[in-house]
Structure formats: C-alpha cells, structure tokens
Amino acid sequence: MTAQKKTSRRDFLKATGIITAGTLLPAHFAIGNTAKIKVGLMLPYTGTFAPPGNSITNAFKLYIAEQGGRLAGREVEYVVVDDESDPAKAPENTHRLIVRDKVDFLVGTVHSGVAMGMVKVAREAGTITIIPNAGTDAATGPMCAPNIFRASFSTYQTAFPMGKVMVERGHKRVAIITWKYAFGEESARAFKEGYEAAGGKIVKEMFLPFPNVEFQAYLTEIAALKPDAVFVFFAGAGAVKFVKDYAAAGLKNTIPLYGSGFLTDGTLAAQGDSAEGVHTTLHYADDLGTPRDNAFRVAYRKAYGYDPDVYAVQGYDTAQLLAAGLDPVKGDAGARAEIIAAMEKATIDSPRGKFTMSRAHNPIQDIYLRKVEGGQNRVVGIAAKALADPVRGCKMA
Amino acid sequence: MDVYTFLIQVLNGLQYGLLLFLVASGLTMIFGIMGIINLAHGSFYMIGAYLAWAFAAATGSLFSAILLGLVVSTLIGVILEWTVFRRLYHRDHLYQVLLTFGLIMIFEELRSMTFGDDVHSVAIPAVFSAAIPLTDTLSYPVYRLVISATCLVVAMLIYWLIQHTRLGMMIRAGASNREMVQVLGIDIKLVYTLVFALGLALAAFAGMIAAPISTVYPNMGGQILIISFVVVVVGGIGSVKGTLLAALMIGMADTFGKIVLPQIASMSAYLLMAAVLLWRPRGLFAVGGR
Q: Is residue A14 part of a domain?
C-alpha cells in the first residue's frame, strides 16, 4: 500500500514536470507530443449559413477523430468563432484569433465577403489559412498569397464547364439569371466565357438585387424570349424559390433549366418534384459510389446521424490538407515554409475524388455534370476533367 | 415585346405597385395626420409576413393566419401608440427618427429571438395556386390577380373612409387643426390611436399577402421601407391620392426597368424619383403646410 502511494506521487511529479517543461518551451522546439496544435475555426454557426458552417466543422473534427484526435501526432485544440456571415466583423474576428488566441492555423469560412475580410488580415499576418467553402475567384486570384489555401472550389470551376455542356446538348440561345452580387456575377461571367467559347449565344443576362426572390417579371421575360435553355445561379432559400416558381410558371417542360451545382444542393427536399430533371455542375455529387466516398459517408452518418453534403466533404478535405502539411514536419507548426511546400505538393484523397493544388492554391479537380433524379443529384458525366482555376491576377510565383 | 408579354408585365407592375401602395399609404397617413416620421413602418411589413408564416404553419390556412395576424399586429400598433408614439407628437422630427430607428433594431432582435434568422416560405392557398395560360409559354398566376384585386379594394376603402365617413372627417379636421377638433368635443387622442393602428395594420397586411410570393426573411422590412419612402416622396408627403399614383408609377418603372435595362434595374425607382422631384420638388400632389 505505502509503496504504491509513493510510486504514484513520483509519477505525478514526473508528469507535472514534463507538462510544465512542455508548456514553457515554444511549440517549434517542443519535444514529443506535448504542444497542442491550435486551430481557429471561424465559421457561421447562426443565421442562413449555419448549416454549411456546422457541416464543415463536423467533418473537420471527424477527420481529426479518425486520426485519434491528433494531427501529425499532436493533440488539436480548437478556438471556435461564430462569424455570423457578417463581412463587417471579419477583420476583427480574424485579428483576435491570430493575435489574442495565437492560433497556429486558421480555417474559414462560408460567406465570400467574410472570407475576403479574413484573407486580407491573414495574408498580412502570414498565418496559414484554409478556406473550406467561400468560392470567390479573388481569394485565389488577385488576393492570393503563399499562406492562403482553399480546399473547396473557385466560382469559376462551378460555372465555366457548363458552357460547353450546354452547347453540346444543342442549346444555342441561352438566357442567364442570377443575383447581382460577387458570387452571382462571377458565376455568370465564368459561364458566359465557357459558353461563348463553345459557340453559344447569350440572349439576355438578368441580375436581381441580392437577396431578392421576386422572380415574376423575369419569368415572364424568359417565357416571352423562349431561349433554348436557361442558366441560373441561386443558392439556399433563393434556389428553392426559383426552381419552384420556374416549374409553377410552366416553364420547366418547355425551357430546360441548368445551373451551378448550388442550385440543387441542400435544397432538394424543399424543391421536391419541381427540381426533377434540372442539370447542374459541381465538384461533388450524391452517388459517386467510390470506395473512398462510401467510407466517408458511412463514417459521417455514424458520427452525426445524417448524410454528409458537399460542405462536409470540403471540411473533411480541409483537415486532410492540414495533415498533409504537418505530417512531413512531424507536427512542428512553426515550420511554415516546409508546411506550405508540403501542402502545395499534396495529393488529397478526397471523397469527391483525388485532387492537387493549383499554383494559386485552389484544388485542381473534376467537375461533375449532375441531373436531379428521384430527389438526388446523380452523376451523368464529367463536365471537365482536372479543371484548374484560371489564376487571373495572382502575383504569387 | 409582343402584346401578351406587355400585358403580363403591366399586370406584374400593377401588382407590385398596389402592394407598395398598401405599405406607403399608412406611412403617408401617419405623417400627414400626426406629423410622425415612422422609420419602423417597414418592420410592420416584416412582422406581418412572419405572423402569416407562423400562423399559417399553426392553423394550416393562410386565410385564418391573415385574420389572426391582423388582430395581433393591430394590437401591437395600439400598444405602441399608447406607450411610445403619443409622447412624440410635439417633438422635433429628429427625436422621431432616432426613436423609430431604435424600434427597428428592437423589432429585428425580437424577430431573431422568436423566429430565428432563417428564410421561410409560405404556400400559396390551394384555391389560388393555378395560372391562367395565355400562349404556349406565357401564363399569369391567379394568386397575383387576387393580390392586385385585394389591394384595389383596400385602396378604395381607405379613400371612402377618409372622404365619406364621419371618422374620415374627424381625421381630416384633426390633421389641419388639432385644438379646434378637441374643443368641438371630439376625442382626438382616440382618433390618432385609430389612424396609427390602421396605418401599421395596412403594412402588416401587405406583408401577409406578399409572404407567399416574396418569402419571409430577416431585414425584409428595411427593403420595403426605403422604397415606400420613395413612393411617399414622389407622391407628395401626406397625399393618399399622390401615394397611389406614385406607387403605380414605381411598380411599372421597376418591372419594365428589370426587363428593358436589367443592368440598372435596382436604380429605376430612384431615377424616377429624381426625375419627378426635378419637375415637382414637393412631389406629384403636394399637401400644403408642413
């Protein structure tokens, strides 16, 4: 009894000593597994974008949990901030995570406006940042930087390939409708570029103020113009309303509807029958059926009780990308240049299919052509193989 | 643009314009009669829409939701007049602007606490869910015709109330000389409460009938408020007739602006306002005095 007590006290002292030594030493020089890796998650947890924010967080943590709660052998500590999808609060939130909380890595966010605020601060501070959703072309265009990565997509990738697809399907005259804000305008521009290059003709471009959903005047105009087809970008509740209104106006059967993938992602339950037959392009689909995707879907459902979506895939890959950077340096978060180099060279074995990073730090990935059938976004082909973003305006070598 | 397209776009413009009139008429009456600039007016449009959504979900019928919503929003209006606005009649407009701006923030926060920040949709009642086909691709939704008709009836009721009833007489008299009306033994305080509650109920009603076509979302009150002020200014502050004409003009400008010049669609109402104010700086039907 006495001997046992003595041993345990000695063990306790020894452990305390190691922990104290570990915390006193800067992470860069830490030996063994004592220093935790601090990850700042700056994502929306309230408001319209809360569901994508939660999906990303869930899947990010799922990957870490699969590695035994560790990244490159180190424990992970999260600092979570709700960015409320408010661009005005983005610089302050980012600054606080970097300066006060001293995070080693930043992960965020969903809203492109908030992401731009975040990128502006992060590229000054040099903190390695991974964007798990926000697609604005500028983040890997004019705003690109060595420490800024994106694990999701650029707007260009979700719309450009559809141009060629629509011409090939015999739609020679097409109308475009979207919201007049950065993502809508970028989508329209990218689609137009791909479509006109393939020989199609745009008969009308229509832009609604964001987040207006009063489509009546535009639907009348589409019905009067009788284009061969319509290309659309809307997302969330706006996408639900547009697809339903389009079908209710009787246009669905006469003028086929095409769009960027967000038109029918996470919205199908609400859209119901009105979405059947709508074609979209995106870097993920519901029925890829690859072993990698199946394993991911099973694990996600087991952990959270519901099916993953495209946002979950992106959150998962954000963690994979981070692991790819940290593994070669054995979790030494201070080895910035080596981590960046490793991330640039990484091949991510994503549920969406393998991808690598472009020169501007955006995934080079396959874009799938999907069709809504039986309430699912089913793959009907590959719209573009290993598509990279055009890297316009990126000054990074 | 062929005849059918033109006709449907005219109907679209009328429908939007008439809906704007419902919101703007309350705004202009409250200003014209009580001299109150109520920035929180748009919040009642939002309150109406959220009440319609919540009650329609609870009762399964938009009609009963509208009835319940009218009762609740009128009650809120009466309570607000008793507790807050009554103290503002003799104050400078700056106080009114500050206070009603505060009210907007309170209403938004309350909305966020009770209903959350999500976007909701309200189903069009099954009886009105059809569309009238005109050509092989063109058709006009019945529900929008119902909205236009309802708004027209309400507009005529307002006109009749103000021009041809005893209450209307008191309202008009109270607007030009409050003391004189009081001396005649009329309870002007009660008249004010009624007008105020009526104005807010109109905005809420507009929000309720528009809910199925515009969906229900945070900050929807702010958008309608700005365009309603444009309507009031173009029509001439305090003039219900001017407000109707201005609302219809802006409805048309907005609808045809979207089609003819989509690049500047979001500006069309403001361009129209600038044009009218250059020609008539006090609006189409200026009411003298203030």
A: no
